[in-house]
Design brief:
single chain; alpha/beta; Ferritin; 2 domains; two-stranded antiparallel sheet; 18 helices; about 15% strand
Amino acid sequence: MPAKENGRSQAANLGFEAKLFLAADKLRGSMDASEYKHVVLGLVFLKYISDAFNGVYEKLKADENADEEDAEEYLAERTFWVPKEARWGYLQSNAKQPTIGKLVDDAMLAIEKSNVSLKGVLPTNFAREALNKQMLGELVDLISTIGMKEESNRSKDILGRVYEYFLGGFAGAEGKRGGEFYTPRSVVRVLTEMLEPYKGRVYDPCCGSGGMFVQSEKFVVEHGGRIGDIRVYGQEMNNTTWRLAKMNMAVRGIDADIQWNNEGSFHKDELPDLKADFILANPPFNISDWGGGRLREDVRWKYGIPPAGNANYAWLQHIIHHLATNGTAGVVLANGSMSSNSSGEGDIRQNLVEADLVDCMVALPGALFYSTPIPACLWFLAKNKNPGNAWRDRRGEILFIDARKLGHMVDRKRRELSDEDIARIADTYHAWRSEGEAIKRRSAYEDIAGFCFSATIDDLKEHGYVLTSGRFVGAEDEEDDGVPFEEKFFALKEKLEAQFAENDKLTESIRIALGRLK
């Protein structure tokens, strides 16, 4: 979202994706962001698969032994087949026609018909009377500029970045509703940088639009791994959001098994036998209508029956149930989860700690999320705190990190964590976990007053198993300026006395002025 200074947008300082979002948002007019989102993201998706198709098309056309109009050829290249009437060039050439809405709908239906994995995924309501066709045509022209001068692979990458940026942009425009499908990128990056999902099965039981998976894939690529080394699994109960996730995965080229049903992961777990190596999740905060009363005897509640009025500890136990033997998880929850004792939550938390499943707790600053201004925390869970492979034996210990002072405001309402903030949090965790040769590549861990502390289970017992970071990290050490405390105290006292005297004078002046008005 554009930064504001003196009421003016600093558009000149924005990146390509941000400028494009501003241009697209300008075309929106009075249309609600939640509705407009599907129009824009649907068109970006169409442009993406058309550009990907064109890359393979040109390669096949240059091969005299290949048929560029054979759909099987594209399947072999792991590329969606795009019928002629759905190709972007055809839509762009008809962008100014009053029938553009129907042409886009026909294109979406043709793509779904030709690609089974996209059946029931794409938006198909562009011909509706309420959608301004001139605006739609201008939007087609605008999206046509994305990657226009780039070769196919580069164009696809740019479109993927645009899709991801637009998801965040619309989440901001929708406010609280936007938080239901989108987790802020900086929060997801903390999870991926700490968990380091290089290889194995990655799972999100409430995956929203799939941001956790995108950042996991990015982590693998940015750290020299192979995308094929991870396998993505997810579930989402909101059908509209599930469709966004399916398109997001297709745009990013991520092979993912994302399931949908309207009952959700608690009541109809679509992946009951999955044991994941990494779980990243941002469940709805403090959800009260999760139907817990119907699941009192569930096999997942090994550490206590979660209260029917709050799903926080149901999510934690569902996630633990799906962890592999050496699996690790990062979960975003409301701060209340760290200390609540209502309806047996304190007992469940104690059981989780004594079972040595809690690995690290991170307190986050407020205003990070679109859906709520309240601060949240990150729970890191580990099935095995002594897995070897350069990891130190941390059985019986929990790392606390207080990151509440980190981050910067990007606008009046929302904060973001910088790359430096994310690195500081992740590096602290890895220094705490590392041993042997790994220590040589990282700074050695040490407790830092006001930021991090390595606690024992006995420490937690003394605090009633409350997991609030501030209780353990203490206050930040103040820099010693050489001035004795007594001298500072009396100087402050004199200053305060002077302010009291000034206040008395002002009060008397006001009384005199009021007396003259009688």
